[in-house]
Specification:
Length: 157
Amino acid sequence: MAEQKQGEELLQRAMRACSEREYCISDISALLDRWGADNKEMHEQVIERLVKEKFIDEHRYSRAFVLDHFRHSQWGRVKISMALKQKKVDPEAIASGMESIGEEEYLELLQKILVDQRRKIKAKNRLDLKGKLLRHALGKGFESHLVYDAINSLLTD
């Protein structure tokens, strides 16, 4: 009986957390651990109920995560995708979330990042400049072929 009461309390707490912001299944699982969920069965019951009642939706979470990290943190697709994989988000949900980034908007952000970074860089020569721009954009998670093209068009202007 006490276990059932604890399960209900954890469910209410998780529902409250999910109503305040988006969470994925692994985030909620980590919260349940932190809150003292005793066993794996309790975890599964709470998560199953949250998914059933749409408190957790991995596709919705993925879309929100992608747009947030793209627009605010200025991350590229590679870095966003890796972060979602680390959170064990379903690959199908990751793919649907990635579709929320428009190609034109994506390329504009890459160009903006490179232009901003070019102003800050002190380079010895053109090759050094290209290398520093390349490392910066790759570190942000943009695809190498897009970065090469963007750097070449930026430096030929």
